Request: fold
Amino acid sequence: MSDEEPAGGEPPALSARAVLLAGFTLELSLILVAAVLGWGTRGVPFPFRFQLDLEGLAWGLGATAPMGVLAIALTSPAADRIGWLRRINEVVTRLLGDAVRELSVLELLCLAAAAGLGEEVLFRGVLQQVAGAWGLWIASLVFGLLHALTPGYFLMTTGIGVYLGWVQVFSGNLLAPVIVHGAYDAIALCRFRQRLLVERER
Reply:
């Protein structure tokens, strides 16, 4: 077995450049997927309201507070004392740890912004709108399934999807969940990077 092959048949960790390029490509391509879905079901590519206004900004910033607390809690050392949270951190560290450690804060912020925009356009902007009365729950379930690194992470991201869907419904402006999602990812990624750097220095 070569030095480059992972032990135990696990997938190899991704390089920083691969994570950056794949992240941007994947996240922003979701906008195209959303446009096709919207056009095919509603006759318009984007059947939602996205307005850069103070009300949408206020909704986004206000709704970010609990998600920011969650991001801080999940990336704290205390999370390792809870089995399913420890498992999430182990899987994420194995897959993305080396790359996240090497990416700059600016690069992580750009990835978070791309995820917030691309995923919210698809899940809350289009899928939730076109799926009818059960749209919030269907979009949240699909969102969770596509983030199912572990069973615990599936349940957690499904719950986050419900929260983001609620923000979309009550704000009436996709700007709000885009802000919340992007801010959550930015906080989580930057704290994760800081934790990895501290652990490497020990």
Remarks:
- The chain has one domain: 14-201.
- The chain has seven helices and no strands.
